[in-house]
Amino acid sequence: MELKAVFHANQIQEIDIEHLPASLHNSPDQIPIAVEARLVASRNHYDRVLVGYADCGTGGRLDEVCRKFGVERLPGAHCYELYAGKGVFAALAEEEPGTFYLTDYLAKHFHRLVVEGLKLRKHPMLAPLIFNNYSRVLYFAQTSNELIHKKAVEAAEFLQLPLTVRPASYGDFSYK
């Protein structure tokens, strides 16, 4: 959604956007493997490729794949930094290090990606172990969709944490 808005604002029309499963964020070690497979499959089809991931927990391994194929990725450690901007995100993280971050997508699919993805209904004893050090939920609202806002509230309630809502931006991802 955000990439489409940036491309539209810059009147960039000849572009293909290919998606990988969002559930890869539950297994960040799989992100570089999936990106590499997609790059191999699309080799010789495009003049230029941009990988629409920040590092997303890959520990620099995504950067290795990008260097290998001569492509760029989005800046930052993760999408939350992208939505706030590096400086703003650093201030938010400093203000409250124990923050669980939500985007519209994660709020909308919290149950599937977090509760089911981490098997918390089957193993509820894991929830306190996983989320014990969190002290708040910060939701980067990308839209004003009330249904998604309600899902963010439900996610915070599931985690038993207070919810802070902050409008998302494109952060440092400025238009050229």
Describe this structure in words.
The protein is mostly helical. 44% of the residues lie in helices and 11% in strands. The protein contains 9 helices and 5 strands. The protein has helices spanning 2-9, 31-42, 61-69, 79-84, 86-95, 104-108, 110-116, 126-131, 146-159; strands at 50-51, 72-73, 99-102, 136-141, 163-167. It has a 3-stranded parallel sheet. A two-stranded parallel ribbon has the order 1-2. The chain is globular and about 50 Å long. 22% of the residues are buried. The model has no long low-confidence stretch (mean pLDDT 89).
Tell how many strands the DSSP assignment holds: 5
Record the strand order, biggest sheet. 3-4-5
Radius of gyration: 17 Å
- From the spread of the alpha carbons, the general shape counts as globular
**Roughly what fraction of the amino acids lie in strands?**
5-15%
Helix coverage percent of residues?
40-55%
- Biggest sheet character: 3 strands, parallel
The quaternary state of the protein chains shown equals: single chain
**What class, by secondary structure content?**
mainly alpha
Q: How much is the average pLDDT? A: 89
Put simply, the count of helices is 9
Reading the helices and strands in chain order gives HHEHEHHEHHHEHE
State the gist of this model.
With about 180 residues, the protein is mainly alpha-helical. The protein contains nine helices and five strands.
Provide keyphrases for this structure:
176 residues, mainly alpha, three-stranded parallel β-sheet, two-stranded parallel ribbon, 9 helices
